[in-house]
Amino acid sequence: MAFKFKISDNSLFAVLLRSSWWISFAIALGLLLIIRLVVPEPYLAPAMSISLPFLIIGGIVAWKQLQIPGAARVAATRTAVKAMSFKEFSALVEQAYLRDGYRVARLSGAADFKITRMGKTTLVSCKRWKAASHGVEPLRELDRRREAEEAHDGFYVALDGVTGNAREFAGKHRIHLVEGQELTSLLRLPKR
After folding, report:
1. 10 Cβ partners below 8 Å, 6+ apart?
2. Other C-beta atoms within 10 Å of 73: how many?
3. Whether the Cβ atoms of residue 161 and residue 135 lie closer than 8 Å to each other
4. Bridge partners (DSSP) listed for residue 115
5. pTM of the entire structure?
6. What does the pLDDT look like over 108-119, one tens digit per residue?
7. Is beta strand 113-117 parallel, antiparallel or unpaired with respect to 103-106?
């Protein structure tokens, strides 16, 4: 039996992992200052190790935030992807998920791919990525297919134009919208 460690979404460390990197470093610095003032000299070194988890989390968050693409990179990816045919784009999406450790199977209909990693199956719909507006209907189709396939989640890939109703529907039906920075990070197109 495999042991999976999962921290609570409301724990201090989970909150810090979602926060800006400098917050963890500020907490570590504050702890170090307090320890320096309160703890006697012989116990100073071991007591200072209390700040180590905050320094590690700050480093992890800083690394993640450095990996987030900027507005220029997102715009360049959007331009490059708009110029692609569906065949080119779908091959790029397939390669991206394979690179990220998923098993990928092509599908037809409401979903284009079935991706699986660590026993979790997700359906990906990306054929309408260039549509000027994305309403609720393609998300409904993906949700019906997700339920029929008993997939855990659905990913809907879009460059622009996801309506408010579609966003609300996605939030209620385990469908994650892959757009903007996330799509740029996924595809990892070379810098031009």
Report:
1. none
2. 16
3. no
4. 104, 122
5. 0.71
6. 999 999 999 999
7. antiparallel
